[in-house]
Task: structure prediction
Amino acid sequence: MKVASNFATALSVFALISTGSIAASAQSNTPLDQINVDGANKTKNDNEYEGTILENPPVGVPGIVLAKEDLDRINPKDLQDIFANETSVSVGGSTAVSQKIFVYGIEDKNLAVSVDGAIQSNDLFHHTGTLLIDPSLLKAARVDPGVAPVDAGPGALGGSIQFETVDVKDLLEPGKTLGGFAKVSYDTNSKTFTTDVSGYTISNGFEALGYYKYANGENWDAGNRVEQEGTAVDLQSALGKLAYEAMTGDRFELSYEWVNDDALRPFRPNFGSVTFGAPRDPKEFNMSRNGFVFNYTDEKPNGWWDPKLVIAYSASKLEFLDLPFSTLTNLAETKTWSGKIENKFNISQGDIVAGVDFFHTDSEGGTLGDPAFALGTEKDRNIGLFTQARLDIMRNARLSFGGRVDNQRFTGVDGTDLNDTGFSGNISGEYDLNDIFTLKGGYAHVFGRIPLAEALLNYNDWDYTNVETFHSDNYTAGISAKYKGFTADVNYSVITIDDAIGHNAGFRSVDRNNTLDIKSKAFDVALGYKWDTGFVKAKYSNIDTTGDGEPISTTAWSWGTNMGELITLEASHQFEGTGITIGGDIQIALKQNDFSNIFLVSDNTPGNPLPAYEVVNAFIQYEPKSIPKITLRAEVNNIFNETYSDRATTGQDYEAFYVPLREPGRSVYLSAKAEF
Result:
C-alpha cells in the first residue's frame, strides 16, 4: 500500500508539470517537434552532432543516445544518475568504486566500452566496478544493446557503450576566445561538498581546456536512517585538452583524464555487510583511472575522404590493505594501449566506414609480499579489421550492416599462449510503413575473446586447459510510431552468450575454463510527448536474464543479473521568459519473485525475492535574467525516503549471507554555477 500511495502522490506532481505545460504548449503557434524518447531528440540527418558518437545513432535497434543537453538536465553525480531513467540499462552499487553497468542484465565486462574512442579494460576486483568516471566531464553517452555496430569495437557480446568528454567548443560561447566556470554544490544527506572549476580558450585554431573537481563528504543514511558505512565520498577528477584545428579542417587533439577515489571502504565495498568472512571495518581503499587520447579528424571531409585516427592509453589501479587477513597490500592494475584508424566513405545513399583497430592490455595483481598470492600477469592482444555501412536504400527504408575479423593472442600467468581468430557481423534496418509507423529489427553475431581474469586474482596456478573463445547471437525486433509531438516504441530483444568464461573462476578453483550459458530476454515499451519547452516520457522493461537456464543471481560475478520489471516516468518544463525549469522522475522496480532456484556462484541455498521499490525525485533550476551566466539548482532526491537497493546492486537476492548496500534516503542537493 505504501508504494501505491507514494506512486499516486508522485503522479499528481507529474500531472501538475505535464498538464500545465501541455496547456502552455497548446497556446503556442510553434509546431510540435518530434521527440526521440531515448534521448537526443534529433533525426539521423541532423548535423548538430557531426563528429561525435551521436553522429550515427542506432538504426533498427533500441539504442540509447544522451546528448549534452540531456546530461545537463539530468545533472548526474555518478554513473547511476546518467542511466537512472533508462530501464534497459541499470547501474548497481551506490558508491562510485562499486558501480557496474548492466545492459539488459548483461554485465559491462561483456560489452565493448570506450571513452573518447579509448578502449576500456578495467576488470580489477569483482567487488568493485569497472569504470570509474566523472559524469561532469561528459558531453555524450551512447548505448547499443545487443546489436552493436562493428566500428564500436571488439568484444561487443552484449552490445556497446561509448562515452565522450567535453571540448572547448561545447563550453565556450560563439565569438568568444576565453571562458570558464566555477560550481559549488552540497548534499544534505551525506554532507558532501563538491567544487568544480574550469577554464578554456580558443585562438587562431588553438584550443585549451582545464578542469578540476573535488568532492568530500561523510557516510550517508538510508531511508530507514541507518548509516551506510564505507559510502563517504572522497573523489578528485581532472581533464585537460589541447587541440589545433587548421583552416583545412585537419584537427589534432590530445586529452588527459584522471579520476581518483580515496576513501575508507570495506574489504567488499559493494556489500552493506556479510555474515561470513571479512568484517565490515572500513580501511583505506584507493581506486583510480587515468589515460590520454590522441585524436585526428578532418572537420571538413570531402566525399570519400573522411579519416579518423585514435591512439590511446588507459590505466586503472586498485590498492588497499589486506585486512583482516594480513597487514599486506592488495594491488590490482590494468594497462591498455589501443588505437584505431578508419575512413568514412560518404556516398549518396549514406556512408561506409572501414578501418582497423587494436588493443594491448596487461592485467597484473596479487598481494604484495605474500608468496601464495604473488603478483601475476595476464596479457590480451587483439587486432581487428572492420567495415560498417549505414545506407538509405530507398525513400522509406534504412539499412545498416557490417562485419569484422578479430585475431586474439592471449597469454596466461604461466606463459600459456592461446591464439584464435573469429568473425563478427550485424545487420539491422528500419522500414517506414507510413508517416507514423516504422518497423525495425536487427541481428548480430559476435566473436568473444578469452577474457582477462580480474587482476586481483591472477593466481600463479591458473589451469588454462580447454580454455576457448566463445560467441554471442543477438536479435531485436520492434515497431515505433510518431505523430507530431507523440512517440511510442515497442521492442523485443534476445541476447544469447554461449559458454561465457567467468572473470574470477579462481574464487572457487583454479579452473579458468569456468563457463556459463547466458540468455537475456527483454521486452521494452517507451512512450513520450514533447512540446516547445518540455517533455514527458515513460519507459517499461521486463528483463529475464538466466545462467544455464536458471534466473541469474546478483552475485554471479562478471556475467549478469536478473533485473525483472522496471518502470520510469520523467517530465521537465521550462517556463519561457522566467529562467525557471522544473522537472522530476519516478523510478519503480516491481517485486521479483523468481529466485527460489537461482544460479549462484558460491552456494546452492535458495535465494529470496527482490523487493519492490519506488523512488521519486524532483528539481527546480533558475537562471536569472538579471544576472546572466548564473545557474541555481535545487533537487530533492528520494522524496518519500524509500529504503531500497538499486535492482542491480549485489547481494540483495541472497540476504541469508549478504546485507546489500542501500541507496541514500531523502536528501536535498543544492548547487550554484557561475560562468564567465
